[in-house]
Amino acid sequence: MHDKPRIYVAGHRGLVGSAIVRALRAADTAEIVTRSHDELELTDQVLVREFFRSEGIDQVYLAAARVGGIHANNSYPAEFIYDNLMVQANVVHEAWRAGVRKLLFLGSSCIYPRLAAQPIREEYLMNGMLEPTNEPYAMAKIAGIKLCESYNRQYGTDYRSVMPTNLYGPGDNYHPENSHVIPALLRRFHEAKTSAAPEVVIWGSGKPMREFLYVDDMAAASVHVMELAPGAYAAATDPMHSHINVGTGQDVTIAELARLVGETVGYGGDIVFDASKPDGTPRKLLDVSKLAALGWRASTPLAEGLQRAYLGYLAHLSCEAGLDARCEMDNRTDGASGPEWRISTRTAHA
Ligand SMILES: NC(=O)C1=CN([C@@H]2O[C@H](COP(=O)(O)OP(=O)(O)OC[C@H]3O[C@@H](n4cnc5c(N)ncnc54)[C@H](OP(=O)(O)O)[C@@H]3O)[C@@H](O)[C@H]2O)C=CC1
Ligand SMILES: C[C@H]1O[C@H](OP(=O)(O)OP(=O)(O)OC[C@H]2O[C@@H](n3cnc4c(=O)[nH]c(N)nc43)[C@H](O)[C@@H]2O)[C@@H](O)[C@@H](O)C1=O
């Protein structure tokens, strides 16, 4: 053990990983260890083993994953299942081999059955068929939970899992097709405003409902769950049902979200729907009572979070244009999926 614990944040340049780093830096109680994707390919077991063997890591936040919205999940199912299975298997196994006792695995609310009763309680896992547009990703995330539980049961580790709802905020992926709905709409509405376009097209019927959590709330929840006393976590969970939902407990329709994003950006034109695009899961509102009983609740209202997310998008545009000296290039175009996978620079200024 070191004076301060050495905490490895895997995926620190991503939306959530960068927010976890902000939260840990603000607390100033840990030494933070990071590696970018090009410095450490987490699907490569040999490299991951060498990293844990040499770095003396005490805790891991596993926020590295192949992540994307409904179109990306539907279009690249092989990458979504392979990358996520490999990254989590390598990180969990090699962390265990190196003696890391504490790890937090980030899953997703898409692990639950497509037609689960609402709000979705943790115990509804594996009670029904998954949503087809993201089944491979969801299967990998379910395997991630079971990986952590199995190492806990056999080796006595303390590997915990959180299942976030849909997340958004500064430092998001703004790719026009592969991103999630909020960054996609911030970009589309902004471009429509700038070009004075008469209408903005929203995918699907507008009827699906989604719950959105601001990313700094997600980071705070992650740190909260990681730091719960082992007895408190064990009392709230079960060795074979150990994951905890993280959300706001409130959802909106995609049509309502589109109206809110339009308002945030200041776009005055029409909103139209493209029914040829998939809706995905009709609704996936999380029951967040377990985490509330453990002392944590979300605090950022959607309208406020959208304002901050829009500022994050504008900062990202300044980075792309080379107008902001604080920007770091994050080499996102070097990923295995090729240069079109995502936009090459993102920024998540504190
Ligand atoms: N965003 C959301 O709405 C939600 C996210 N989650 C979960 O939260 C976690 C973080 O997601 P988010 O921050 O949004 O995702 P991002 O795509 O923003 O970040 C993921 C990070 O992981 C890195 N990464 C991906 N693959 C590899 C690899 N093979 N080796 C090394 N690094 C890799 C990425 O690097 P690079 O980009 O260079 O490849 C990136 O820095 C994930 O587990 C995700 O499933 C859960 C629910 C909702
Ligand atoms: C976090 C979660 O993210 C993914 O699931 P999802 O919840 O369906 O996420 P999404 O943000 O991509 O879409 C939400 C809704 O919004 C609609 N929608 C409208 N217009 C756009 C649009 O322009 N882009 C996108 N992406 N969606 C749009 C879209 O049709 C859908 O009805 C999973 O694959 C899985 O990875 C996962 O866990």
Explain what this protein looks like in three dimensions:
The protein has 350 residues and is of the alpha/beta class. The chain has helices at residues 15-27, 45-55, 70-75, 77-97, 135-155, 181-195, 215-227, 230-236, 254-265, 289-293, 302-320; strands at 6-10, 31-33, 59-62, 102-106, 158-164, 166-168, 199-203, 209-210, 212-214, 243-246, 252-253, 270-274. The protein has a domain at 6-172 and 211-249 and 284-300 and 327-334: NAD(P)-binding Rossmann-like Domain (Rossmann fold, 3-Layer(aba) Sandwich), CATH 3.40.50. Helices cover 41% and strands 14% of the residues. Strands 2-1-3-4-5-10 form a 6-stranded parallel sheet, sandwiched between helices. Strand 1 (6-10), helix 1 and strand 2 form a beta-alpha-beta unit. Helix 1 (15-27) crosses helix 7 (215-227) and helix 9 (254-265) crosses helix 11. The protein is globular, with a radius of gyration of 19 Å. 48% of the residues are buried. The site of NADPH dihydro-nicotinamide-adenine-dinucleotide phosphate has 26 residues, from helix 1, helix 4 and strand 6.
